[in-house]
Amino acid sequence: MCALPFSETELLNCLKKSIKNKHSSGPDDIPNSLLRSSLHIIIKPVTHLVNMSFSNGVFPKELKLSTVHPVHKKGCSRDCSNYRPISVSSALSKVFEYAMLERLNSHLVKYNIVSNKQHGFCNGKSTITAINSFVNDIISLLDKKQNVLAIFCDLSRAFDTVDHLLLLEKLNTYGIRGVVAN
Questions:
Q1: Distance separating alpha carbons of residues 31 and 38, to the nearest angstrom
Q2: E-assigned strands of the chain?
Q3: How far, in Å, CA of 25 to CA of 17, rounded?
Q4: Model's pTM, two decimal places?
Q5: Residue 74 to residues 62, 67, 70, 82, 157: CA-CA distances in angstroms?
Q6: Would you state the pLDDT for residue 141?
Q7: What's the confidence (pLDDT) of residue 25?
């Protein structure tokens, strides 16, 4: 994966895409609107901060803070499992995350790592595109007089059980290693 430092232009684009122009703020109490309106003033120190963080492999602890709001899903309001946490992090934290996401996505596309059958967590794809693809595959097979068998699995909470050493091995296999993987 690209280990080059981030450019100011690259991070300006990340700032514009990752920070909504709202007055809301994270735990640092810096409103998103203030960051957006001062982009050209703060871009140089932000670029330095992001590049130092990635080159040293240290994410600033202040940016790890989030304000968590429990949002009721359904059922009894006294049952904690009926809530999902919504974390509000600082806008600068979002810039770090978005910059890394852009680099990672670029790497995945460049080396054709993600299957075109992948619909989850892909820009421009959704459960609707997954269903459409699935139905088209079924129709195509039935038109050819072939049998169709489908198995559906509920993988909710699947990421909670991932073996981290295995995940790091897989990342390494795909060229994602070092500071980025840690």
A1: 11
A2: 66-72, 83-89
A3: 16
A4: 0.76
A5: 33, 22, 12, 6, 18
A6: 96
A7: 84
Task: Show me where the domains of the chain are located.
Answer: 8-113+152-180
89 forms beta bridges with 66
Other residues' Cβ atoms within 10 Å of the Cβ of residue 62: 11
Q: CA-to-CA distance for 18 and 26, rounded, in angstroms?
A: 14
Nearest to 108 by CA among 55, 18, 176: 176
**What's the Cα-to-Cα distance from 65 to each of 26, 43, 50, 109, 117, rounded to whole Å?**
9, 22, 17, 31, 35
- The mean per-residue pLDDT over the stretch 122-139 comes to 92
Mean pLDDT for 40-54 is 93
Q: What are phi and psi of 86, to 5 degrees?
A: -110, 115
Rounded to whole angstroms, what are the CA distances from 177 to 18, 65, 71, 174?
25, 25, 36, 8
